[in-house]
Fold these 2 entries.
Entry 1:
Amino acid sequence: MMKSFLQILLLVSCATAGFAAERGVSPNGTPFFLSQIKGENKVVIRVAWPQTWPYETGHNPLTPYVGAQLVIQSGAEDFGPAQIQQEFATYKSSGNLASSMGAVRGTLVLDVAYLDDAAKLASIILAKPRLDEKWMHRIQKNLVAAQTEVNRKDATMGWNAIRYAILGNQPYRTYISAENAELFSEITRQDVIDWKNQVFNKNSVVISIAGDIDAARAGELIDETLKGLPDGVKKTVSVLETDWRAKRIWLHVPDAPKASMGYAGPLPPTRLGSEFEDVIAVNILGGGQKSMLFKAIREQLRASYGFRAGLANFDRETRLFSISGEVDPKDVAKVDAVIRATYQTFLETDLREEQVEALRGLLSKSWSANVKKPAALSQIVLESILDGHDENYADTVGAQLKSKMVQDVAQRIVSTFPKSDALVQIVVSPNLPETDGYCVISKPQEAVDCPVQ
């Protein structure tokens, strides 16, 4: 669902080493992006099909989660599930399919000695999955159990409340929250068929391939993998409707063992750039024991509460900055005051060159080894292309990072980070608030009706 810190670091490592992805077109006309790595015995193909299903009304928005698992787990054509696993093992290869933010993503890890065999098997799975109903019920049962357990967590309930406050009742909010796990049980096999027919085709797919393979051979593999799919049409993913107006929400959970606190505000999508300034900024604010939040809480409250700042995505166009942590319920008011004061200082303070330099060095060095691996490179290029950049964008990131100075980060903080009084706040606590100004609710969905501050 989100573009993670890990993915950003991978971009940096790629650029530090220097490489060039190239555009290719398969014999059947499917575009792809190739990153050659000589001497590797694995070729990794990553694909992304943009999907509109989670944004649309009129059907179960959780269908993609069940569908993605069912396509790869229930067998295909004359192959049973166990036989498919055995075949992939024989070919020293593997595959995966998952529904994520705005897209269904697939990964094929192929051994160079069995490229054609593994690609043919993948083609059968994509074009002719059995979609067996018994397997579907097994997947549904597992998803209900796992999601029910996740939904019991106080922090999960808090972030669900924030999503309600920002996204309201639109289908995509249900898709990314799944706060009603029983919706998985309501999905029918026909829902999965309709979803599959809507998503999988040749013309909307984005493909990144990396390994010891040339463009001609890569094109042949892609055509073999996709040969059973219809041509289809390119899809445009909807833009989410969001309400970022400040709210202070108190979710009262009487049996919660402690209090969870969170703050959220919008940031521009990564396709618009400045992602490194953002990563450096949030780590200065709340990235560990040397961060502003850690020091402020330790020094002012004599407490060791672990509050962190972070970056996340609701989808590719809807990105947020957050602060979160857990506290003793009796300390909520005191901690809130310190966090808000520290954040205001963060918005106004002059950064130190050594802070920026240390984080810039960490970004450059931590993942330098990954650029030699097909799994990392294929992911790097795919993310870059999905952000709307060209195939050589990642190769320029190293120079971009080296050019980032303390004034660039400071300017980004001042111009782009949400103001301290504009954050959406959530408290999940067994106690009721000791101060005025909170909208007190007992269920996450009630946050929709909380008043704007």
Entry 2:
Amino acid sequence: MRHLTTFAFLALLAHGHAQTEVRTSSFSFAVGVQPTFSVVFRNADAPTVAAWYKDQLKDISAGVVSKKELMAIGTRLPEVSTDTMRVYVKVDQPKKSPDVTLHVAFKVAGGFVGPDSETRQVEGCRAWMYQQAVMLKKMLAQRELDAGTKQQARLEDELAMLVRENERAQKSIEKTQQNITDGEKEKADTDGELGNMLTRLDSKKQDVANAPSEENTKQLQALMKEQEKLQRKSEKLARDITSGTRKIEDLRFDIKKNLVDQDAKSKAIDAQKIVVESLREKLATVN
């Protein structure tokens, strides 16, 4: 479904949304060409159709054999006959065709039910075929609706995640900007202290030069350590400010991309809602 545009999907959906028609024809089985009742399932697959009818026949038959074709033994269909019967089932899906044609032959005591059989038998087979086909179509339509609804929910979750990511990025920008402002203020204060420290160092160096003593030397060394500490702090603050500025630039780029992604996701959700509504309508009008 994700690989189809909304228009293409709806066109495909419309093609598959047709009233169930049970046709009488003939088809080749292991027991030869026999009269059949057939139904076409649009946009279906042979294994699913075959599995459905196998399950349905199991409930009303003494046994079901599945080889090249499906054969039910001792099948009870009171609307067709008071006796049990055999039912032969074949599904036909030409290569690359999206449609499956189901062929079913009913063998009662007098032979296979066909156009020349008793009205009760013909109409009973037709009614059973119609009932089962509609039930299968509803199951397939419900499956499509569930998948479409799940896809819509996934898209909505992804949009919500994008919104949360955007909000986190906005808050991160605010926090980083505040850290930069605080860092700039602290750096200015540190640089001011560093300037005063350099003045004190020059004065202390002059004292050591004019009056060398152990005390003056210790004081000079202490001032030099303090100056180095302030210098490292100033340099770290400068790095943090630069790093924060780059982080804000990256976050703004991410937000710009996020908004583009949000717009695309919103459009995808709107398109998916149309698909889901069409699938819901399809399920409600299966007949």
